[in-house]
Amino acid sequence: MFANKNLKARKGDLIVCQNGHRVGHFFRDVLQDRKIEADDLEFDAELTRPAHGYQCLTCGEPVATFSEKDRTFSVYRASGWLS
What we know:
The protein is an all-beta fold. It has one domain (9-82). It has strands at 7-9, 14-16, 22-26, 30-31, 41-43, 53-55, 62-67, 72-77, 80-82. It is globular.
């Protein structure tokens, strides 16, 4: 399988907290030049949702944040934050 360099996230890529707890995955591919949208994300459980994001149910670490200004999500993966 060849990596598509035009993708920032691939369908099935895991979403984890900074402590490594799995909380979900990308529901669909996200192109490099596109913002991450809510429909791109699928969480394993109903996560705690503070003001503008989502937190891990196990440890409370942030796993996704939403910027009202940019109307985009930043999501945490094992390799770090992705916007």
